[in-house]
Design goal:
The complex is a heterodimer.
Chain A (H helix, E strand, L loop, with lengths): L3 H21 L3 H26 L3 H31 L13
Helix pairs in contact in A: 1-2, 2-3
Chain B lengths: L2 H21 L5 H27 L7 E11 L2 E9 L1 H24 L6 H20 L3 H19 L6 H32 L4 H10 L8 H16 L8 H4 L5 H10 L4 H8 L1 H5 L2 H22 L5 H21 L3 H28 L17 H15 L5 H16 L1 H30 L7 H6 L46 H16 L14 H10 L12 H28 L2 H9 L1 H8 L4 H51 L4 H23 L1 H8 L1
Antiparallel strand pairs in B: 1-2
Classes of the chains: A mainly alpha, B mainly alpha.
């Protein structure tokens, strides 16, 4: 039996990697992937706790998260394509029209 | 007598003030003057009716009107209450009668001024407070009127507020009056402490009931403090300096407030408080000495002034000194008598001077006048009545009133009485001199004004060619009442040269001229075959006990004394006649000959300068360094600056976070989340932290 803390530590590591990547990377697609990574780290936590407490709700939540993530991916990728067509770049630092 | 009618006496002018003050800006001028005139005419008529009622047989000596209770603290109570006795009646007659005439005059004088409605609003406000002052039946309500007339005086002196000198004169009057008011306040506190009441009847009743051996002590303190208040309001040494500067106001204001009514409030107050003063011989002596000294000093200054209104201003100070001299020798009737005749002839003189100024389109310097006798005959004849009256030529008004004061001073006897009498007599001579000087310089001799320039009519009365640009600095304080600044230039130009005044101006002059002539006849003393009606009329107020007996004076000295004072007046007249009519050059030669003396007088004994050095500059220095530098600069502004600085610093820090960079927002978000988690783990649920690490 693998102790629960292993799952949690793994989830924390994944989440942290996601955060760091989100903060460091400039490519929109990479940022998008890091968000997915964070979501999956959370999913892993949900599943781990659901297994620990023998409850079904955690697993149901994972499905919800997956559905939302899929929808988000669809919209997000569409935006990225539109962005690329408009600006010929995927670097977020150059997409700052609203800031200036 | 109907109580409601009596309440209307002060209420109507106040209503006039409210109407003109709030709506007057939109009114046509005719409506403004109608409101203002009605608001003073009706009280005058009511006073007339009251007068007839009080004179009728069987009328009570005193009426009292109790309004609402005002202050009520355990045993101490003050009401909004009025009391009318014969003294009040005399004052009411002067205030409403002369006040109404001056209102009529103002309609003509101010016809072309900007701020017409504002002027009449202020005048009505003044009338209201003055009537409250004389009607009040307690010290506190009197103080309300006292302060109110000060306010109205301030507003009217500074009527041409765009001129710095006028604004400053208004401030000076107000501030000097504050000093006097402070004395009045302290006197009221002492009265509360010793008598437990501020009601006139109560306080004077207690004072009269004090054992007759008791004189002086706290009563002297009260009287002297009251006199400080009176000296401030009535321009006596050492607080007289504001009155000459008050001439910056329009001339009708000088006539109404600074000659006939407000400045006599101090005399009225001393007379009203006579039960207190009677008990304090020392205070009475102080009043007499200050009065006499003021009369003398102001008269000497008046001899060398060139501005026609300033001569009259110093003359007013001097005549007020006479009134105090009368009160100071316990001849209150004589003081009030002179107050009344002075109200007639000094209002007349000021209004006539205003008419001269009007005729010359704003010229006030007597060196630029002369030869006006034929040009403005009505003004000349009315002013002549005023000059003869003030000089004490029989049978004009002031002959009787001034003589009564001098006679009473002489009767007082003792070294002090005779000294005061001599000074009073000399002052009478000087008065005659400077008034005839004014008369000759204005109306006789060759014209010294520039006829051609007048015909073009530039100039404005009460308004020299002063720069109008810096006036905007004063606008804030007058934000409510301010006029359109572009064309407020005092009296508008007259397209013609020297001209007689319109009927609205000369009719009041004529009435006052007649009053200056016959006004003294109500007080013809027994020695001259009269009955001294005036003294008997006021008798019940001032000496209720002796009144029945009446006092019989020796006739011999009164004749001689009257003769002597007429002689003094004649000498003054003759001197003026020689110096300013027969040999016009001699005056300048004399001035050259006695240059130090002339300079001393010309600079008004350097009193303004001395006050400036001794009081104003140190005060300003303390204000600048301690209050301005330390308190305002360090504490007030320092606190403000610190607060503002720290707010700005925090804002700068907070602004750093709002960089507009998405990743930095994400970074802050992550940091915040991490902090929240840390707090939850280690601070809120330490136990769970243990579980985790286990």
């Amino acid at each position: 039996m693998v102790p629960i803390s292993y799952y949690l530590i793994l989830a924390a590591i994944l989440f942290s990697i996601g955060v760091c990547a989100f903060l460091i990377k400039r490519n929109v697609i990479t940022i998008f992937m890091s968000i997915e990574l964070m979501l999956n780290a959370v999913n892993l936590t949900f599943v781990a706790f659901a297994h620990m407490w023998n409850r079904i709700e955690g697993q149901i939540f994972v499905f919800f998260v997956m559905v939302v993530a899929a929808a988000e991916a669809a919209v997000g990728l569409a935006i990225i394509i539109a962005l690329f067509r408009a600006r010929q770049t995927l670097n977020v630092d150059q997409v700052n029209l609203m800031k200036d | 007598m109907n109580d409601t009618l009596l309440w209307l006496i002060p209420t109507l002018p106040f209503a006039g003030f409210l109407i003109n003050g709030t709506l007057g800006r939109k009114f046509p001028r005719a409506l403004v003057s109608t409101v203002a005139l009605l608001a003073t005419l009706l009280p005058a008529l009511i006073v007339l009716k009251l007068w007839i009622f009080m004179r009728s047989a069987g009328a009570p000596g005193e009426l009292s009107l109790i309004g609402a209770p005002w202050i009520s603290i355990s045993h101490f109570q003050v009401n909004f209450a009025f009391a009318i006795d014969h003294l009040t009646l005399v004052m009411l007659g002067i205030v409403t009668g002369v006040g109404f005439l001056i209102h009529v005059y103002s309609v003509g004088y101010m016809a072309e001024e900007e701020g017409y409605w504002r002027f009449f609003g202020y005048l009505n406000l003044f009338m209201f407070f003055m009537l409250v002052l004389v009607l009040a039946s307690s010290f506190l309500l009197m103080f309300v009127g006292w302060e109110g007339v000060g306010l109205a005086s301030y507003l009217l002196i500074g009527f041409y507020f765009k001129r710095d000198s006028a604004a400053n004169a208004g401030k000076k009057a107000f501030i000097v009056n504050r000093i006097g008011d402070f004395g009045f306040l302290l006197a009221m506190f002492l009265i509360i402490a010793h008598f437990g009441s501020l009601d006139f009847a109560n306080v004077f009743g207690q004072a009269n009931a004090l054992p007759s051996g008791l004189t002086g002590g706290f009563l002297t303190a009260i009287c002297l403090l009251l006199f400080v208040g009176a000296a401030g309001k009535s321009a006596q040494i050492p607080l007289y300096i504001w009155l000459p500067d008050a001439m910056e106001g329009p001339t009708p204001v000088s006539a109404l407030i600074h000659a006939a009514t407000m400045v006599t409030a101090g005399v009225y107050m001393v007379a009203r408080c006579h039960p207190l003063f009677d008990r304090s011989p020392f205070a009475l002596d102080v009043v007499a000495i200050i009065g006499c000294a003021t009369a003398f000093f102001a008269a000497t200054i008046g001899m060398v002034q060139h501005d026609i209104k300033r001569v009259l201003a110093y003359s007013t100070v001097s005549q007020l000194g006479y009134m105090f001299l009368g009160c100071g020798v316990a001849a209150y009737e004589a003081g009030i008598f002179h107050l009344m005749t002075h109200a007639f002839f000094k209002a007349l003189l000021f209004l006539a001077a205003g008419s001269v100024i009007h005729a010359l389109s704003g010229e006030q310097d007597m060196r630029n006048m002369g030869g006006l006798r034929k040009r403005i005959p009505i003004t000349f004849y009315t002013m002549t009545a005023g000059v003869f009256a003030i000089a004490g030529v029989p049978p004009f008004a002031a002959f009787f009133s001034k003589d009564e004061i001098l006679y009473q001073t002489f009767l007082r006897g003792g070294a002090l009485g005779y000294t005061l009498w001599v000074f009073g007599l000399v002052t009478a001579g000087i008065t005659s001199f400077y008034m005839f000087r004014l008369w000759y310089k204005t109306f006789f001799g060759p014209p010294r004004f520039d006829e051609a320039a007048l015909a073009h009519g530039h100039g404005a009365h009460g308004d020299h060619e002063e720069d109008l640009a810096p006036v905007y600095a004063h606008r804030d304080s007058h934000a409510v009442m301010v006029e359109e600044p572009e064309h407020d230039k005092g009296q508008a130009a007259h397209p013609h040269g020297v001209h007689e005044s319109p009927a609205t101006m000369w009719i009041p002059l004529a009435i006052l001229g007649v009053l200056s002539f016959i006004g003294g006849w109500v007080g013809v003393p027994l020695a001259f075959g009269g009955h001294n009606e005036f003294e008997h009329f006021l008798g019940p107020v001032f000496n209720p006990v002796e009144h029945a007996a009446g006092h019989i004076a020796a006739r011999g000295p009164e004749y001689i004394l009257a003769l002597v004072s007429v002689l003094a007046a004649a000498i003054g007249w003759y001197a003026a006649h020689v110096l300013y009519y027969r040999k016009p050059g001699t005056a300048a030669a004399l001035a050259e000959r006695f240059k130090p003396l002339y300079n001393l007088l010309d600079h008004k004994y350097w009193v303004d300068e001395i006050y400036g050095r001794l009081i104003v500059s140190p005060l300003l220095m303390v204000s600048r360094i301690v209050l301005g530098g330390l308190v305002d600069g360090l504490i007030v502004q320092g606190t403000g600056a610190t607060l503002a600085g720290s707010t700005r610093g925090l804002g700068w820090l907070a602004r750093r976070m709002q960089s507009g960079n998405i990743r930095s927002y994400a970074g802050w978000l992550a940091l915040g989340a991490a902090i929240v988690i840390a707090i939850v783990l280690f601070a809120v649920h330490p136990a769970s932290a243990n579980t985790l690490t286990r």
